[in-house]
Amino acid sequence: MGGILYTIIIGAVIGVLARFFKPGADPLGWILTILLGIAGAYIGSLLYAGGGVIGFAISIVCAIVLLFVYEMIRSRTAKRPVT
Protein backbone atom coordinates (compact mmCIF):
# COMPACT_ATOMS: atom_id res chain seq x y z
CA MET A 1 0.00 0.00 0.00
CA GLY A 2 2.84 2.38 0.84
CA GLY A 3 4.49 1.76 -2.52
CA ILE A 4 1.38 2.80 -4.44
CA LEU A 5 0.99 5.97 -2.38
CA TYR A 6 4.67 6.80 -2.83
CA THR A 7 4.37 6.30 -6.60
CA ILE A 8 1.34 8.62 -6.76
CA ILE A 9 3.06 11.33 -4.72
CA ILE A 10 6.30 11.19 -6.74
CA GLY A 11 4.27 11.14 -9.97
CA ALA A 12 2.36 14.22 -8.85
CA VAL A 13 5.54 16.10 -7.95
CA ILE A 14 7.28 15.23 -11.21
CA GLY A 15 4.15 15.99 -13.27
CA VAL A 16 3.62 19.38 -11.61
CA LEU A 17 7.28 20.33 -12.05
CA ALA A 18 7.18 19.26 -15.71
CA ARG A 19 4.11 21.43 -16.31
CA PHE A 20 5.79 24.31 -14.47
CA PHE A 21 9.00 24.18 -16.53
CA LYS A 22 7.31 23.69 -19.91
CA PRO A 23 6.13 26.95 -21.46
CA GLY A 24 2.52 27.39 -22.53
CA ALA A 25 -0.84 26.29 -21.22
CA ASP A 26 -1.30 22.58 -20.57
CA PRO A 27 -4.88 21.26 -20.72
CA LEU A 28 -4.35 18.47 -18.18
CA GLY A 29 -6.28 17.65 -15.07
CA TRP A 30 -4.63 16.43 -11.91
CA ILE A 31 -5.08 12.73 -12.74
CA LEU A 32 -3.35 13.11 -16.11
CA THR A 33 -0.64 15.18 -14.42
CA ILE A 34 0.02 12.31 -11.98
CA LEU A 35 0.05 9.76 -14.82
CA LEU A 36 2.43 12.00 -16.78
CA GLY A 37 4.75 12.16 -13.79
CA ILE A 38 4.62 8.41 -13.21
CA ALA A 39 5.41 7.72 -16.87
CA GLY A 40 8.23 10.27 -16.81
CA ALA A 41 9.68 8.69 -13.67
CA TYR A 42 9.47 5.23 -15.21
CA ILE A 43 11.20 6.27 -18.43
CA GLY A 44 13.75 8.25 -16.43
CA SER A 45 14.56 5.19 -14.33
CA LEU A 46 15.12 3.20 -17.52
CA LEU A 47 17.54 5.82 -18.80
CA TYR A 48 19.39 6.42 -15.52
CA ALA A 49 19.20 3.87 -12.73
CA GLY A 50 21.41 5.82 -10.33
CA GLY A 51 18.61 7.75 -8.65
CA GLY A 52 19.27 10.84 -6.57
CA VAL A 53 19.04 14.39 -7.86
CA ILE A 54 20.24 13.46 -11.34
CA GLY A 55 17.63 10.71 -11.67
CA PHE A 56 14.92 13.10 -10.46
CA ALA A 57 15.99 15.73 -13.03
CA ILE A 58 16.03 13.14 -15.82
CA SER A 59 12.53 12.05 -14.81
CA ILE A 60 11.30 15.65 -15.07
CA VAL A 61 12.90 16.04 -18.51
CA CYS A 62 11.24 12.80 -19.65
CA ALA A 63 7.88 14.07 -18.38
CA ILE A 64 8.38 17.33 -20.31
CA VAL A 65 9.09 15.35 -23.48
CA LEU A 66 5.95 13.28 -22.85
CA LEU A 67 4.00 16.51 -22.39
CA PHE A 68 5.17 17.75 -25.80
CA VAL A 69 4.19 14.40 -27.36
CA TYR A 70 0.76 14.56 -25.69
CA GLU A 71 0.15 18.07 -27.05
CA MET A 72 1.29 17.05 -30.52
CA ILE A 73 -1.11 14.09 -30.57
CA ARG A 74 -3.93 16.18 -29.14
CA SER A 75 -3.48 18.93 -31.74
CA ARG A 76 -3.50 16.40 -34.60
CA THR A 77 -6.72 14.80 -33.46
CA ALA A 78 -8.35 18.20 -32.85
CA LYS A 79 -7.61 19.42 -36.40
CA ARG A 80 -9.10 16.35 -38.05
CA PRO A 81 -12.00 17.37 -40.35
CA VAL A 82 -15.47 16.09 -39.58
CA THR A 83 -17.01 14.05 -42.41
From TrEMBL:
<comment type="similarity">
    <text>Belongs to the UPF0410 family.</text>
</comment>
<keyword id="KW-1003">Cell membrane</keyword>
<feature type="transmembrane region" description="Helical">
    <location>
        <begin position="28"/>
        <end position="48"/>
    </location>
</feature>
<feature type="transmembrane region" description="Helical">
    <location>
        <begin position="6"/>
        <end position="21"/>
    </location>
</feature>
<protein>
    <submittedName>
        <fullName>GlsB/YeaQ/YmgE family stress response membrane protein</fullName>
    </submittedName>
</protein>
<feature type="transmembrane region" description="Helical">
    <location>
        <begin position="54"/>
        <end position="73"/>
    </location>
</feature>
<keyword id="KW-0472">Membrane</keyword>
<keyword id="KW-1133">Transmembrane helix</keyword>
<keyword id="KW-0812">Transmembrane</keyword>
<dbReference type="InterPro" id="IPR007341">
    <property type="entry name" value="Transgly_assoc"/>
</dbReference>
